[in-house]
Specification:
Layout (H helix, E strand, L loop, with lengths): L2 H10 L9 H10 L11 E2 L36 H15 L12 E4 L2 H11 L3 E7 L5 H6 L5 E7 L10 H9 L5 E5 L11 H14 L2 E5 L32 E6 L12 E4 L2 H14 L5 H10 L2 H28 L3 E2 L8 E5 L10 H9 L3 E2 L1 E2 L20 E5 L4 H17 L1
Parallel strand pairs: 1-11, 3-4, 3-5, 5-6, 6-7
Antiparallel strand pairs: 2-8, 7-8, 9-10, 10-13, 12-13
Length: 425
């Protein structure tokens, strides 16, 4: 061991080498070059959050909250009754009108953010095979990896010819033939922008229901839905619409205020499912985090008022559909293509294989773009590998996730710089 390696190991002590999650690595590299959030001369086409400022057609941003004296105390592990009731009503209004089985506060667990909600859920899973797909959300790698000694990862590989979406038939095979007892996936999908909806989503839910497989539907982009013409979609998509009985269906839905309501800094997420499962999730939180902030929960009550919530999400689809169209057009002009144009999210999962040498590798592309103060996310980060069994196999070396989360003018500035980069070689 060299003296430098010894100093590094000594500084780290008994800590392991902890890798950055994809988008965090991107930001870390950019910070070394002068980036900070809000820098006017940087374009973060790798960002995992939507624009958070005032937006055309949306209600004014909430800027203050009045506290109750009880807000200074610890709150319940699973969230306040008041917010849980509002979340349950939100889902019943959007997805369960006319259905005899309705969500109540007992079907809701509130957490300080989506990753924490997911952490609680996975911690509460019983030992056994857990299916997951690739490409998918980068945080799943460590999230599943922390439990890889008791949760056997079962890989489902999305193929380019299917737009990287896993057909229901392949999910069913993983459950029936490979013994998966749970399945975790982002829907709509980060990074691909795919969305499982309609009859296919109903079949996903039926596979879980008929086989006792707990379905973990990570729905943080549920309101970013676009039509076949690329315009705003009719409304959100959720597995909640396909649940037969909220107390018997093994469907857990994870969502929050982070994406669809554009309040990522509030760290407010939730899980919805059968009350017995929700109780287990809440118990897992007693050692993990101790419960969410009462203050954020009080502020969240206003965000989810029906009129305000619908105004926000309708405006969201209008604004982001427009940005999606601009990004797809400008990327196409560069020779950057998709297997399937995004039906949801604010990401374009695109191939750079047709670009000239020196630009057709995602890491090379990243480092050349960052010198022009433009950030992207190399595709390798979405090759979720909880046990690190696939070594240096990176099937997405020529795939990049581009984000149209930034405001339109900033996004266009970044895309223009990429066009200049390719033109100048």
């Amino acid at each position: 061991m060299s003296s430098q390696e010894h100093r590094t190991a000594s500084t780290r002590g008994s800590f392991r080498e902890v890798p950055y999650m994809g988008v965090i690595w991107v930001v870390h590299e950019a910070v070394q070059r002068g980036f900070y959030n809000g820098h006017p001369d940087w374009c973060n086409l790798g960002q995992g959050q939507p624009e958070v400022g005032e937006m055309a057609g949306a209600p004014p941003r909430l800027m203050q909250v009045a506290l109750d004296p009880t807000d200074h105390a610890y709150g319940p592990l699973g969230g306040t009754d008041e917010l849980r009731e509002v979340i349950a009503a939100h889902y019943n209004r959007l997805y369960r009108q006319g259905k005899s089985s309705q969500y109540t506060k007992d079907n809701v667990s509130v957490a300080s953010g989506g990753r924490l909600a997911l952490t609680r859920v996975v911690a509460a899973l019983a030992d056994g095979p857990l299916a997951y797909q690739v490409p998918d959300y980068t945080a799943y790698e460590d999230l599943i990896g922390y439990h890889a000694h008791r949760l056997e990862p079962v890989l489902l590989e999305g193929r380019e010819e299917n737009g990287f979406q896993v057909p229901a038939a392949e999910l069913e095979e993983a459950v029936r033939e490979r013994g998966a007892r749970a399945f975790i996936y982002s829907n709509p999908c980060n990074p691909t922008g795919n969305v499982v909806s309609g009859d296919e989503l109903a079949r996903y839910c039926a596979i879980g229901r008929d086989n006792g497989c707990t379905m973990l539907h990570d729905e943080f982009y549920s309101h970013f839905i676009y039509g076949a013409d690329g315009g705003p979609g009719d409304g959100p998509v959720s597995a909640a619409a396909h649940v037969d009985d909220v107390e018997r269906d093994p469907q857990i839905i994870i969502d929050g205020l982070t994406k669809s309501f554009r309040y990522p800094g509030w760290r407010c997420g939730w899980a919805i499912g059968p009350s017995e499962m929700i109780e287990a999730i809440n118990r897992s939180s007693s050692a993990i985090d101790g419960g969410p902030s009462r203050i954020v929960q009080r502020a969240a009550l206003e965000v989810l008022q029906p009129k305000r919530a619908d105004q926000e999400t309708t405006a969201l689809r209008e604004v982001f559909a427009r940005k999606r169209g601009i990004m797809l057009r400008m990327l196409g002009e560069m020779g950057i293509t998709t297997a399937r144009d995004p039906q949801s999210t604010f990401y374009v999962w695109a191939s750079i294989a047709k670009l000239p040498d020196g630009f057709n590798d995602a890491d090379e592309f990243f480092f050349k773009a960052i010198e022009r103060r433009v950030m992207t996310v190399p595709g390798r980060f979405f090759n979720v590998d909880p046990r690190h069994e696939r070594g240096n196999e990176h099937p997405y070396r020529q795939w990049v996730r581009f984000s149209f989360g930034p405001p339109e003018d900033n996004m266009v500035m970044g895309l223009t710089r990429l066009q200049e980069m390719l033109r100048e070689g």
